[in-house]
What we know:
Distance between the termini: 28 Å
Strand order of the largest sheet: 1-2-9
Number of domains: 1
Largest sheet: 3 strands, antiparallel
Order of helices and strands: EEEEEEEEHHE
Strand content: 25-35%
Shape: globular
Helix content: 10-25%
Number of strands: 9
Amino acid sequence: MADGYYEWKREKIGKQPYYFTRFDNKAMYFAGIYKNHQFVIITMQADFKSIDIHHRQPVIINEKDLNNYFNLKKEGTSFLKSYKTPELKFHPISKDVNNPINNTKELIEELK
């Protein structure tokens, strides 16, 4: 579970970080696969709003659909292809997010 995630947009001079959250401000549950002590987050093609920032985005499962996701009775790809992800919002943030020494709530505030 997460409140949001970061994505970087390539620009002419360097990269600009963006912070993504759900439009309804609910928690995010990322679809993933765990096997042999390794975990990966499943991604999909970015929606039309965020494709300018990055070409892919994590698959986000709504809380009400978690049991269906964890107890798949059909092939996982069928579930993911038929699933409608929640709407996201995003804004540019400070490049200070790239330094692990920085760990404050101000890192997710929108640049003015």
